[in-house]
Write a structure and sequence with these properties.
358 residues; three-stranded antiparallel sheet; 20% strand; globular
């Protein structure tokens, strides 16, 4: 898959089904040892042995320890660092973590308790299994990325680390004809710095080095059988930006909670904007309000296509389009200390922008 050309539109994403069952928040993969103390060395029964002078002596036999394979807290095998173990080999029977599920609200609450609706959900299990598989790949690569990225790395090095991890964990390197159709990268990795809100991909030969004062939006996708998990996060090494990160994360979580079957896009956008713009950040002694970037949106996702026909605004408006049953959405929020508007140009619109997708 070729990288898309360098573009200076900033962004970030997250996968959301009508009911959030995307597997993005799964159990902590910290290693645990299931060693049973009863397996420790034990003295075997003492067996007397007669010698020439009829004196009995005791002979001890040692029992070997039985070694047990280390597993994670959810019973899966342990991932390597950098991540290279295919996720399918870590979870038996394609039983991937369900992750965080947001309950249906208001008039849709019956979907949680209705046995008929729950049965229909179970019949749609292949769809959810593919999404949860991709989400678990994304989660494991994302966790490694968040720990490993440091100032001084080149953007090319960071992008290659992410994409190598995704291809290894999906088990699809894309080297054989048709292999990348089965799984792998959902789209080229976006690494957008500072005023660039989204969609900047370092091409071959890019010499840009990540600096300590930079704010970087990390945006990458994973797909299994065309089910695309689209998720992003923002990294900053200076605590002065903590409130900016908190604003976009809160806005994304708000959008996820508000989303659902028959919900109007305008209502979701209004809730996101209210959460986002309740924050402000102090930079260089100046207090700046955080604004939603009004011409960037979330979107629907269809199989093998990252952008469907519906947009999810992040500001209030008059869009009466509704989310419908069976659809999948990326709730994407973009916060800025600038004008709250982006142009397809690197020159100066945003002072600083952040993206967080759920």
């Amino acid at each position: 898959m070729e990288r898309r050309p360098d573009r200076n539109i900033p962004a970030e994403h997250l996968i959301l089904a009508s009911k959030r069952a995307d597997g993005l928040s799964s159990p902590d993969p910290k290693s645990t040892n299931d060693h049973d103390p009863s397996d420790d060395d034990k003295d075997d029964e003492e067996a007397p042995e007669e010698l020439g002078n009829d004196t009995a002596v005791k002979k001890k036999k040692k029992k070997k320890k039985s070694k047990k394979k280390k597993t994670t807290a959810n019973g899966a095998g342990k991932q390597s660092s950098p991540p290279r173990v295919p996720v399918a080999s870590l979870f038996s029977g394609n039983q991937y973590p369900a992750g965080e599920e947001v309950e249906y609200r208001n008039e849709n609450s019956f979907r949680t308790t209705s046995e008929e609706k729950r049965h229909l959900d179970r019949m749609n299990n292949d769809f959810l299994t593919e999404y949860r598989h991709g989400a678990e790949v994304h989660r494991q690569v994302r966790q490694w990325t968040q720990k490993s990225i440091k100032p001084g790395q080149s953007l090319t090095e960071i992008a290659e680390g992410i994409e190598d991890g995704v291809r290894a964990l999906t088990g699809h390197q894309g080297l054989e004809e048709g292999d990348n159709i089965k799984g792998g990268m959902g789209f080229p990795t976006g690494l957008s710095l500072n005023h660039c809100a989204a969609h900047y991909t370092p091409n071959a030969g890019n010499k840009t080095i990540l600096q300590k004062e930079d704010v970087m939006k990390v945006d990458f996708g994973v797909h299994i059988n065309g089910r695309i998990v689209d998720s992003a996060f923002t990294l900053a090494f200076d605590p002065v930006y903590d409130n900016l990160l908190a604003a976009v994360k809160d806005a994304t979580n708000t959008g996820v909670r508000e989303a659902g079957i028959d919900v109007r896009m305008s209502d979701i956008g209004a809730a996101i904007q209210e959460a986002m713009e309740s924050y402000e950040v102090e930079i260089g002694g100046q207090t700046l309000p955080v604004k939603s970037i009004r011409n960037l949106n979330g979107h629907s996702i269809v199989q093998y296509s990252i952008h469907g026909s519906k947009s999810v605004p992040i500001v209030k408006g008059g869009d009466q389009t509704k989310m419908e049953e069976g659809e999948t959405f990326a709730i994407e929020t973009f916060g800025s200390t600038g004008k709250g508007y982006v142009r397809d140009d690197a020159s100066a619109v945003q002072r600083l922008s952040m993206k967080w997708t759920g």
